[in-house]
Amino acid sequence: MSKQETYTISVEQEIQHIEMDQPHVVILGAGASCAAFPNGDKNDVKLPLMNNFVDILGLKDLLSGTGIDFKTENFEEIYSQLHQDAAHRKTREELEKVIYEFFFRLEITSEPTIYDHLLLSLREKDYVVTFNWDSFLLQAGRRNSRRFKLPRLLFLHGNVGVGYCEKDKVAGLIGNNCSKCGGALAPIQFLYPIAEKNYHLNGFISLQWKELEEQLRNAFMITIFGYGAPKSDVQAIELMKSAWGEVTQRDMEQTEIIDIRSEDDLCSTWEPFINTNHYETHSDFYDSWISKHPRRTGEAYINQYKNSKFIYDNPVPKEFGFTELWDWYDRLMQVEEFHENT
Ligand SMILES: [Zn+2]
Question: Which of 28, 62, 250, 334 to pair with 70, CA 20 to 30 A apart?
Fold first, then answer.
């Protein structure tokens, strides 16, 4: 081997290399759906963030009779106030219905999106965990899972695409029946007043959190994509923090943040997670570790951080349509299948 070959890992070497069995955990917030669908869904419906939620969902008329100041930026605050007063029960129920239907109707666009690239770029051992109510991730999963083994999905705030049988603790796509009792899977309640945001109350959601805690302990890398960690999510932050463990006790693990906010802003939000020198921030998904080392994020991590090699990027061909895109990923998955069978 020449000296240069000893210190570098080519794209072909990365593709042929399967070693990592720990999970890469990716956490998505509303910013990820907005980045994946900058022009809205298939029917041009724009996606909301918390600060324009009332506007985009057209909730003004519903709220105007309640006397609640709905101009506040925090929708969760508004919902909590509705919850406190029994006189608002009908409005609250109507609101829950409107919100559920808004998210339920959202349809994924027909060309490959960031969510398709994200799912295709991770392996079965990995996790994509979302705070979002929209079912874009499930829709992307459905169209790619016919050909590819994809990461596992978790829904930390529930999801309109998921149903659950409380009695049998069986989850599945909404519209399907429970595999044990045969009854219809029920929608998951996803709106909670802030004060009662106790994820252990709801069977489905508590199971999701439990699995996340386990996987975070085991992860070699976390990517946080478009999640602003709002103050109302204190419990969420605390849970992740305790599961991720004391940063000082974790030597090598890498944290990656994909967000359009400034680096200073991001660091103050995520400081508890960030082990000195072991984090990077990107404003664009396509600059991320996932997009540069698809289906080999762990091997790229081993080569760069443990073996101190220079690694070349194998960027996701983001302009490809599905046929070309799937052919491109096929090469990667063939190596994985060969590795599993030997
Ligand atoms: Zn059941």
Answer: 28
Contact assessment for residue 229 and residue 237, using Cβ atoms and an 8 Å cutoff: yes
CA 209 / ligand 1 centre spacing (Å): 21
Gap from CA of 205 to ligand 1 centroid (Å)? 17
Ligand 1 center–CA 142 separation, angstroms: 23
Q: Helices 203-218 and 234-244: crossing angle, nearest 10°?
A: 40
Whole-number Å distance, alpha carbon 89 to ligand 1 midpoint, is 29
Cβ of 41: how many Cβ atoms within 10 Å?
18
Tell me, in angstroms, the distance from the centre of ligand 1 to residue 115's CA: 30
Q: Which residues surround ligand 1, an ion (CB under 5 A)?
A: 165, 168, 178, 180-181
What pTM value is reported for the model?
0.92
Ligand 1 geometric centre to CA of 2 (Å): 62
The pair phi, psi for residue 107, each rounded to 5°, is -120, 140
Residues of the chain with CATH 3.40.50: 21-42+108-283
Which residues, 6+ apart, have CB-to-CB distance to 251 below 8 Å? 275
Distance 164 CA to ligand 1 centre (A): 8
185 CA distance to ligand 1 middle (Å): 7
pLDDT tens, residue order, the chain (342 aa): 555 567 999 999 999 999 999 999 999 999 999 999 999 999 999 998 877 888 889 888 888 888 887 776 678 888 888 888 888 899 999 999 999 999 999 999 999 999 999 999 999 999 999 999 999 999 999 999 999 999 999 999 899 999 999 999 999 999 999 999 999 999 998 887 766 666 666 789 889 988 998 898 888 898 999 988 776 677 777 777 776 666 556 655 788 889 988 878 777 777 766 655 677 889 999 999 999 999 999 999 999 989 999 999 999 999 999 999 999 999 999 999 999 988
| Residue 261, both tokens | 């906010």
> In the CATH hierarchy, which fold is given to the domain comprising 21-42+108-283?
Rossmann fold (3.40.50)
For residue 171, the CA-to-ligand 1 centroid distance in Å is: 9
